[in-house]
Each structure stands twice: as C-alpha cells, then as structure tokens.
Write a structure and sequence with these properties.
The relative contact order is 0.12. The chain has 2 domains: 132 residues, no CATH class; 132 residues, no CATH class. Helix content is 75%, strand content 3%. α3 runs parallel beside α6, α8 packs across α9 and α9 runs antiparallel to α11. The mean pLDDT is 91. A two-stranded antiparallel sheet has the order 1-2. The protein is globular, with a radius of gyration of 19 Å. The protein is mainly α and 264 residues long. A hairpin with a 3-residue loop joins β1 and β2. Its main location: membrane.
Length: 264
Amino acid sequence: MKQRIITAIIAAALFIPFVLIGKLPFTILVYIIAAVGIYELLRMKNISIRSIPGIIGLLTVFTMLLPEMYTTELIKLTSFSKLELLMIGVILLLIYSVVVKNHFTFDDVGFILISALYVGIGFYYLIETRNEGLHFIIFALLIVWTTDSGAYFIGRKLGKKKLWPEISPNKTVEGFIGGIITAVVFASIMQMVYPISDSWLALIVISIVASIFGQLGDLVESAIKRHYNVKDSGTILPGHGGILDRFDSLLFVLPLLHFLQFVS
C-alpha cells in the first residue's frame, strides 16, 4: 500500500501540471503514454514494438491520436485522411503476413489492429476532452479516481458477493455499487462548486453511466491480462503495474462522454 501511495503521488505530480497546461505539451505527453500502452499490449502477445508489425501498430496509434484541429493539415501533407491511413496499415500488415509465410498470422494482424484501436481511440479522446475544456477532463478524472477508490475501500469493508471471479477474483458487487455511489457524491460536490451541467438529473445519470463504464473498462483490462496470463500490463508504475492498468477505465469513460454529447 505504501508503495502504491508514493507512486500515485509522484505520478499525479508529473501528470496534473500537463493537464493544467493543456495544448501541445499535454498532447505530446499523451502520445508518450499511448506509445507505452501499445508497447504493453504487444508485449503480452510477444510482438516486439521494434518489429515491422510493431512499428506499423505504433504508427497507427499515432495517426489515430492526431487531434481534430490537425486533421486538415494531415490531409494537405499526405493527401490521406486518418481512416485511409488506417486502411493502409491494415493492408501493410496483411501483406507482411504473406511475405513471412504466415509466421505472422491473420490472428496477429487482428490483435495489432484491435490493440491500436483500443489504445488510439481512448487516448485520442483524452486529448480531445482536454481541448474542450479543463473542467471536462477534471470531471472525467474525478469519476474514474473516486469510482476506483470507492470500489476498493467499500469492497474491502463490506464486500461479500463476488462480481466476476473468473475475470477479477477480488472485485465484489458491493464494491461495484460503492464505486458508483462514491462517484455520484463527488460529481455532485463538483457540480455545487463548479457547475459542469445545466441539469442535475443529466449530471447524475452521466456520472452513474460513466462510473459503470469505467469499471467495465477495468474488467476488460483484467480479462486481457488473464487471457495472456500476465499479472500487470507493465512495471512502469511500481505498486500499480503499467500504463494500461492505470488508464483502462479512462479509455472507456472518455469516449463515452463524447458519444453521449456530454463533452462537445
């Protein structure tokens, strides 16, 4: 626990200033974080990020991360849209599988593409959410962090019924519900201090849905790790694991806030 707290304090001290600054420094930081994220996924599959498929996967993620404000410049520079560049990546990976005579298989192609979409889309919305306003990214972080803390402490104190033991043996139904309640309480406090929505009902509904999706994002990451028989996605954050272990919930919550047009 002590190591987790120390790591969390140091990570927050490094991350929060970039969140406050926003703009290009924050975008660069997100690119670095996303690069580590795709590296962690590829390593689970024993694919080197320095290999041809690994490089294509990394470039695919970088393309997807490009903020909306720069897409026009991308088209001017390359004559390709982001979707067209993604298709080029698909074609190159499929050609590579033929060149190496199926030592790199169709399944491997699918893994890299799903990994790139998972990391690229989630972190793209991290950039876009910050570009829409500091209060939106604070709200998203608040939901994720309070859900995580509420689920952990309430689950430890009151947890009896296992939520999904085949995926994450330590999570409980009581912790799941406790995380939602904690998120709603803190979101309501934020609403009173700095109104983020014109409607209290909308705020509460969004907070509940976002908290649920955040916990589902956590379970998805647990399922991936269990499938590939790894304890943590990485070791970059002592006591916490890897980048994906810390951002798994945000990768689900941030797109959701945009899809529901809460952030726009």
